[in-house]
Amino acid sequence: MSVPARLTADQASALLPQLVTLLQDVVAGGASIGFLRPLPADVALHFWHDVIGEVARGSRLLLVIREGDQVVGSIQLGLCLKPNGLHRAEVQKLLVHTAARRRGLGRVLMSAVEAEARAVGRSLLYLDTEPDQPAEVLYRKLGWTEAGAIPDYACTPDGRLHPTVLFYKKIAP
């Protein structure tokens, strides 16, 4: 299994076609990550351009994992840049290609994003996820603490409202 790599904006730009394909696959597979089905390539491309801009500005970290030359997973860390929040960051968009699931890539990406958070001095991480999905099970197994749930928070890719569960994890910097 490959080791996740933190990408620069230029490196991410070079992988744009693969990142678009990954996002489209995950949404088509039913992941509730902010998009509806079917996800047009131009919408996915716009999303990744925004992410790359934040990577370039230093407000976001982007990690990918590859099998061979193919990107099969990614995860992001949104860095709080406010003076009173420099200790925290939001874990976002854990994506694993549907053909690469059930092999531990989500666990590997979560471990890598925690290490990156420590490296940039963050000691509190938080995230949200759709309940009763494999990601929620993974976060619990990895020691994340549930903070609560918000009803009717987002739509599934097919447009049904669902709650979101908020989690946090304190990590040593």
Describe this structure in words.
- The protein has 173 residues and is α+β, with helices and mostly antiparallel strands.
- The protein has one domain: Aminopeptidase.
- Helix content is 34%, strand content 32%.
- The protein contains five helices and seven strands.
- It has a seven-stranded mixed β-sheet, sandwiched between helices.
- α2 packs across α3.
Order of helices and strands: EHHHEEEHEHEE
User: Distance between the terminal alpha carbons, to the nearest Å?
Assistant: 26 Å
CATH architecture: 3-Layer(aba) Sandwich
Give the number of helices.
5
Strand content: 25-35%
Q: Keywords, please?
A:
single chain, 173 residues, seven-stranded mixed β-sheet, 5 helices, 7 strands, globular
Topology:
Blueprint: E1 5-6, H1 9-14, H2 16-28, H3 41-57, E2 60-67, E3 70-79, E4 88-96, H4 105-119, E5 124-129, H5 134-141, E6 145-155, E7 161-170
Parallel strand pairs: 4-5
Antiparallel strand pairs: 1-2, 2-3, 3-4, 5-7, 6-7
Quick synopsis:
This protein has 173 residues and is an alpha+beta fold.
